Each structure stands twice: as C-alpha cells, then as structure tokens.
C-alpha cells in the first residue's frame, strides 16, 4: 500500500486539487465509511447524500457536484475512472514471485519467460509459450502450443486449450475455460457424429475473462475477441463467435455459434444471443433479452419482462394465451360497427 | 454404514414408532425399491400410491398418511427433515484423513489445524487459516489470507480468493469460485479501465455453495452471505450482493451487483435479478423470472412464460408485437360507440 | 496429419468421387480459404456462393449442389457427417502417452489400465477404475470408486464424483463437474437440513459433456444419461434427471430435478426446464424457452421472445400490463353492441 499526498495524486493523475495539498492518504473507502487517511469518490449522484457525514481525507468528484462537498477534493472529469486509477495505485496487487513453483509441471519444450510466475500445481504443455511478467496462478492448465502474451494474468484454476493465443495484459479469472471444443455434431443414421473442432481461440490485448466463463475454439477458423473485450462470469461464447473491441458482456450471457458482435456493445446480464447473427457496433441489449435477429442500427434493444406479483402475472399469462381470440373478437366488433 | 433398530432410531430422532421396535435397518431406499433392511420415507402425497407394494423395513411418514401404510412406521411431524437426519446417520460421509497430502502445497505461514485434511494437489496460500476438521478436497486453491471455518468442507477443485472468509460447517461443491474480482469497469477515452475490487467475500455458518457457482468479491466493501444460505449450481452472485439468512437460490440464477436479498427468500431456477435492488424477507420468485424492481412485500413474484407448441407461440408473438395497434383500434371503437 | 489421395478418401468413407482420383490432400479448410491441399465441404446451401471462388483440392458436397462446383468433388448423401469423419481422419488428436504422470496421485487400490494416460496434477481416488485407452487430462479429479469406461477422455480439470460411472468413448470437457450433490433441503424449525444425496451419476456410451457443465448425483437413485447424449457448455442437470439416447442440449440450459427427457430431443440454448416433468421423444425446444409442463407430443415448443428496439419493447410491456383492462373494455364493447 502506498502513502502519499493529495498534491502528488493530483499531479500524477491530472486532477484539480481543492484543499490541503500536503494531506496524506494511503487507503480507500466508500463515502460512508471513509476516514481522514482514505480517498473516496462520488460518481453516482444518488450517493451525494453521503457527502454530508463524510469524513474522507479526500473525495474524487466531478465539478458539478464538488460544491456539495466542503472537504479536500480531487476534481475529475471522470471521477469513476480516476478512482479506478488511484485505487490501483494506492493498493497495487502483490507482485507474483518470478519462476516456476516446484510443484508445477512445465513440458520440456515449453518456453516460460524468466520474469513469469508459474504457481503451485499448474501445468504447461509442450510447445506453450508464456510471456514476460505473466502470472499463471495455482492449478492452471495451459495446453500444448498455447501462447500467453506479456503481462497477462491467469488468476488460478484456468484452462487454456491447445494453440489458443492470448494477447498482452489479458486477465482471466478462476474456472474460465478457453478453447474447449465447440458443440459441433452431425446426425447420421440415428447417431451423432462429432465434428472435429480444429480452430482455436484468439484473444486480443487488455481483455478480461470472468470466472467460470467458457469460450469455445472455432470449428475450422478461430473464435476471436478483439482488444479490450470484457466478459463477466459464466458467459458462454460458442465456436466462431467474433466480438469487437471494447464490448462488455455481463454475467450469464450465452452467445451461439458464428455470431459476430460489433465494437462498444454492452450486453446486460443473462441474455441469450442466437447463432449466425451480426450485431453492429454500439448496440446495448437490456437484461435477460433474447436476440434472434441481426441488428444493424446502434441503440438499445430488449425483450426482458419485469416480474410482477404472481397472481397478477398469472392473469396476464392467461390473457396472453387468449390474445389471438381477443383480436378476432375485436375485428368482429370493427366489422359490425362499420 | 450403521445398522440399528427402529427403536434406537425413534429414540434418537424423536419419532413415534409404530411396529417392531427390534427390527434392524441399515440402508436407505425409495418406497418403490426398498427391502426389509431399508428405511424409506413419504413426504410428497403423490408417492402414497407406492405404499401398496412397499417392502421397506420402515417408512418415515406423517401422521396424516400413516393410516395408508401397514408396515413399521416412524411417524414424524416433518418426514422429509427426519429422512434427512436419519439418512445422514445411517450413511455418514467417509471421514477424511487428517493431515496434508504429500502432493499438496501449503505456504509456510499458512495455519492448517492438525485435525484438518488437505487433499492431493491442493494449494493453500500465505497467511491462510484452515480450521478444525476442515476438508480441503483434491485440487482446491485457497488463496492468501483466506479463512475457512471449522468443520467446513471444500469438496474438490474449489477456488477461494484472497482474504475471503467462510464460516463454520460451510459446504462448497466442485468448481465453485468464491472471491474472483467483481465486474467493475470505467470507460475513459474509449477504453475500459479496470476498477480494483478491494472487498472480499464473507460467508456465514452452514451455507452451501453449488458446483460451478461464482461469488464475486466486493468492490470496496464485502459481498456477504448470512448463515444458512443455500446456493445451487451455476449461480452467479455479483459484487456487493448481500443475501439474508436461510435464503435458498436454485440453479442458474444470476444476481447483479449491490442487490440485497432478505432472509427466507426462495429464488427458483434461472432467474435474473437486477443490480442495486432491495428484496425483502420471504419473497418467492418463480422460475426464469426477471426481477428489475425492488420488492417490499413478502409473497410470490414472477415473469416466466411457459412454453407452448411453436406454431401457437409464434402467433402469440405476432399479436404481442401488434398490441399497441390493437389498443388503438379498441379505443377508436370505444370513441365511436360512445 | 495424414496425407492421402481422393480415391483413398472416397473408398474409405463410401463417397462418390468426381475428378482426379490421385489428387493428394492432407488438411482442412472452409470453402473461402481452402487451397489445393485442402478438403472443404458444403452442407449449408447459404454458403454455395463461396463455390465460385473456391480453390479447394476437393469439396465434400451433396448431389443436389454438386452441379454448382466444377472441381474435385466427394459426393455424399450427408456432407456434414462425411466432413466430420474425414476431418477426424486427416487431423487425428495427438495420442496421449500411456502411463501415470509423475505428478499425478493415484490411490493405491485404484485400477488404472496400463494403456490409459493420467496427466499432470490429476488425482484418482481409492477404488476408482480407469479403463483402456482412457485419457485423464491435467488437473482432473476422479473421486473414490468412480468408473471411467474404455476410450473415454476427460480433457482437463474435470471432476468426477464418488461412485459415478462413465460409459465408453465418453468425452468430458474442462471444468465439467459430474456427481456433485443434488440440491436437497428440508426446512425444519427455521433452518435448512441437508438431505443426503446418496445416488450417483451414470453416463452412457458416446456421450459428450461440455465445459463447466454440471450433472448432480441422484438423491436416492441415480441421475442417468443414456448413450450418445450431447451436452454443450454450462448446462445444469439436477438430481435424478434422466435423459434419453441421442438427445442434444445446447449451452446454458438448466434442467430441474427428477425430470425425464426422451430420446432424440433437441433443447436450444438457455432454456429452463422445470422439475418432475416428463418430456417425450423427439421434442424440440426453441431458444430461451421455459418448460413448466410435461410434453407428450413430439414437435417444436417455445416461449422465447425476440428482442426489439427498447422504446418499442417498453410500450409492449406497458400494454402487456394493461391486458386485463383491455379485455374488460373489449367485453363491454361487445355487450353494448349486442
């Protein structure tokens, strides 16, 4: 943990300081719980009410709300981003020790950069390449010929399949499976025949892959994530999907095979997106929606239904089932009236 | 496996015995397959039809249904709970051998109680503490400074993140990931900036966490499960969620960040619950519903739609899309008629 | 990788060759990217447009479309199945080395066939039996008394619970958990009591289990998959479910306890299927549908709603909430008119 002055923080992160430049801070807290040694932040106006009682050593805040806070302020155009950077600076992750743990298994012809850390019980397959400062956490499995780019971190118990390639600064959370076979089956004479999945997974720089998320290898060509794609936990990406740069996908979303998603899209939690679709850039899909058609216009889309009290919802379901009948009756009324 | 008399079972579990007190039983079976050495049970009246042919050595049964069974009966006010206790007594889990397996890796300054069992290929990080009688199954990863309370059991291949704390008698199934980073991102100049996730996960006594379930660490403060919370498989709990005591959540449910769920709630399978909501005590959410608003009254809520034959469902979808138009036409009819 | 002539391929796989029998091929590619050494295929007529520019050494193609391709053709009644077989033949998986890796832990009384391969960091529990040519990949955990049939492959980081039995040629992808406890709870005096889960999981020959998929052990009797059942990633199968032969289930589907699903069913992605249901043979469920009633007739069923632009969808939601009111107004109109 660092301990520094507000002036040093303002200088380092390009913020306007209002208050005591020599005040020292070293830790981080919410507005409600912060003390004099803490930095806090206000990004969501709903929390402005917490400013009244706030005892933080400094608050990262936008110019619009700074008037509501009389203490030390680090004024930012983007308080949440400034918070992200200052938090990472004040509480950096502990550095992993370089080298291969005695219990890890590294194939003879795998290349592990000396600056990389391979943790307990990890295994690295033949021909795999582990870049500079990479952290391969405990229990990870890196299959043969996989490539992990510089400064990437596999937190623990991650599986990377054969020939898959991760860019630089990729962060993969525990339980993620990158490069299992896609779901390819041909029916013949009443039996399923497995279709070999010969592509790989290629992940761009600065991507983040959530816990227990799965990304299948391509059938012939590769499954691809461009740079800065962010996947939350338990996301399922099927074979040959392509996801554009800076797209963020929340937890429990499933994307079926061969669908292409543009850049700067945001898919909310638990959505299902069908196969062989094309979703253009800057599409937002709201929670628990089902996307079954390609989308060619940026904007917000959805089909999720908010829950209601059960009795009311049951009545709506009955009406929904009768819709066709009601429409018929309505048409008859129109005919009679005309 | 124990072998005991019906009298001993009735005495131990506070049940009323009807029949032969000296009859010996040692195993467990369904009504349909039980033989004279087996205990069975009837909790769901739908299975009362199986009593006719039943050959069980004893049936755990409620007073209301006991008249329909002529054999030995262990009469209980709560047959299912009595079954749970008797089954656990007659077929206890094999005890794990205390001690650290030769292949496990335990950091020098980790504390492992001598009564605990650390299985093959497990790893325990620096500063972690493993309590009395804890079982850390094969392939588990316990990160630095995590705390596992007495009598807890991590079945195998479980990941517990840094500083996370599990209470006593917590049961965690394989593939669960507790304490991965929450999904916190700030957009700045067209790039995502990762927001450090500095909170942990705190899990109360007697919780059960299903296979491949994920519980994210808090952003600043902690993600919290109170005591006796029961999560099924593939549940996703985002950062800063809090779940009250005795709440049960079925498989494939996702709960978005900062939502608070009360005590004694029951969330059925595959529901999605939005972020920053507050759900009060004793709320039931039916299967595959989407909760997007806070709930302040106990009761049952839902928005799931039961599947219909495809042709019929397609027609309903068409009508759904035209609803606005039909409402307009209905209003015109009303105007014309008045 | 094999290298062979088109005549040899046609003979081996029972195809009709049109073109140069001595042409040599050894690799595989899409129509759009194939060169003279590649075999490609056309199964989906939508890709027939790629034939015009195609440079493949041979195309596996149906008789109906063969006229649109002037190059070497391997004519098949089922081009996709022929492709699956030829791809597996030309690019076979690298054979795993028989034997137990030095870092693996095998219990003394476990039986591992000498032809089987047990990879790095794997562990095999007491009494487990590993059949001929089985591959137990890196980091797998096979619990006590589990049985893995001949020629099965657990790719890596798979968990197989106590007493679970896999048939022959079963393929299990990373992160899958087979045989965790089912979700069985009895409420008593305000506390949940865990109901012991004493059944196992039995999986038939030729099944495939996707990455991070979970299959719970039965409560008393077993959870069962018949032969040739294919599960995609992140599928959740609860206790005592039975699935008939040749049924395929796409990603993110959840099936609640004790439901029986017939043979040759196809469940599309992200569906939720309720508990204690019976689904007959040859049922198709479309994506993101909720099945809450038993199905007794083969055919297609669904309740998924395709996403729309948000503003339009919000208006439909409003109308949906008012449905009951509109129906009442419609009835009044009918009364007034009559």
Automatic annotation (TrEMBL), chains A, B, C:
Q: In which pathway does it act?
A: Bacterial outer membrane biogenesis; LPS lipid A biosynthesis
The chemistry this enzyme catalyses reads: a UDP-3-O-[(3R)-3-hydroxyacyl]-alpha-D-glucosamine + a (3R)-hydroxyacyl-[ACP] = a UDP-2-N,3-O-bis[(3R)-3-hydroxyacyl]-alpha-D-glucosamine + holo-[ACP] + H(+)
Instruction: Name the residues annotated as catalytic in the UniProt entry.
Output: 239 (proton acceptor)
Question: Origin, by domain of life?
Answer: Bacteria
- What PROSITE patterns would the database entry show? HEXAPEP_TRANSFERASES
Enumerate the spans annotated as UDP-3-O-[3-hydroxymyristoyl] glucosamine N-acyltransferase non-repeat region domain.
22-88
The family database entries (Pfam families) matched by this protein are listed as: GMPPB_C, LpxD
Q: Which SUPFAM superfamilies match?
A: Trimeric LpxA-like enzymes
Q: Does the keyword Zinc apply?
A: no
Q: What is its EC number?
A: 2.3.1.191
Q: What class of enzyme is it?
A: transferase
Tell me the protein's name: UDP-3-O-acylglucosamine N-acyltransferase
State the species of origin: Wenzhouxiangella sediminis
- CDD domains, A to Z: LbH_LpxD
HAMAP family registered for this protein in UniProt: LpxD
